[in-house]
Write a structure and sequence with these properties.
RNaseH-like_sf, Nucleotidyltransferase, domain 5, nucleic acid binding, alpha/beta, RNaseH_sf, 18% strand, 7 helices, 222 residues, globular, 6-stranded mixed beta sheet, Integrase catalytic domain-containing protein, Integrase_cat-core
Length: 222
């Protein structure tokens, strides 16, 4: 096995160095009620290279514009991303070209110190070689973990708002998983380190939800 990349073992702020991938498609209801049409939607997953924290965004299609919108929402809530790794999907390559053009246009409009700051705040995009998914194992594993929960929860088509809520709950669950082995000898003081400790200082999920597995689905509300 080869050595891990430098960004995987170098301490850094969460999501300063991230990997990105898409999952889907999933069918989303256009509106509530019976007989409503569905449309395709995709999930963009961002994985922090140093803390393995995950961020999920619902995306309407696979265009570069839709991904840039998801990337802007990601940066607005998680902070600047200095380096982003992904495969060579067409939407990623197109988004990279548009972001580079946007930064170049911003540099032309401002001069002096502001121009230098904008240049430093740009995100450098890295693409793994084509047909080499094993080189993106970190975010591929994140997609697998996300789908593990999605397959056990989705029993019907959801609206855009319901799917967004579900993704936030799955994100909290993924960011509450232990990063280190738990010592079974001391069960009274178990406090595993989780990605949530790097984000908010504690695991996002501390209180378990009520157990509903023995309740018939027909007795539960949507």
């Amino acid at each position: 096995m080869g050595d891990l990349p430098r960004v995987r073992i170098t301490p850094a702020r969460p999501f300063l160095h991230s990997g990105e991938d898409f999952a889907g498609p999933y069918q989303i209801l256009r509106s509530k009620g019976r007989g409503c049409n569905t449309t395709k939607a995709y999930i963009a997953i961002f994985v922090c290279m140093s803390t393995k924290a995950k961020h999920l965004e619902l995306v309407g299609d696979l265009t570069s514009e839709a991904f840039i919108g998801a990337f802007r929402r990601f940066v607005a809530r998680r902070g600047r991303c200095a380096h982003l790794w992904s495969d060579q999907g067409r939407n990623f390559v197109g988004a990279n070209k548009e972001l580079v053009a946007a930064w170049a246009d911003a540099k032309m409009k401002f001069e002096g110190h502001i121009s230098e700051m904008l240049a430093l705040d740009g995100t450098q995009w890295h693409f793994i070689p084509a047909y080499s998914p094993h080189m993106g194992g970190l975010w591929e594993a994140g997609v697998k973990s996300m789908k593990y929960h999605m397959k056990r929860i989705l029993t019907c088509n959801l609206t855009y708002e319901e799917m967004t809520t579900l993704l936030c709950q799955i994100e909290a669950c993924l960011n509450s998983r232990p990063l280190s082995p738990i010592d079974d000898s001391d069960t009274d003081n178990i406090l595993p380190l989780t990605p949530g400790h790097f984000l908010i200082g504690e695991a996002p999920i501390n209180v378990p939800h009520s157990d509903l597995k023995n309740i018939p689905v027909s007795h539960l509300s949507r």
